[in-house]
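Minutes, project check-in
Item: structure for the 81-residue chain
Input as provided by the requester:
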Amino acid sequence: MMVQRLIPTTLAAAVALVALTACGEKPQTGAGIRSDAPPYAGTGSNFMQPGWKAGDKAAWEAQLKARQQYGQNEYSRTQAK
């Protein structure tokens, strides 16, 4: 009789333990992309703004300024229409 109650209890405890191990956070060691190159040096990707050349710092800063002004500024986007 005791064994019949022990098996479901043990099974429930094992399921709870497995479920709780999924809640643990993995350590973040910073294994992302690291580069000492400046951002305007480019990445060699095909997904670049047309007309921009890698290493052109002035064009990089101008593009960031234009993107900030027209793409992310809701006031100027609503006033332009």
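Outcome recorded: The mean pLDDT is 78.
No further action items on this chain.
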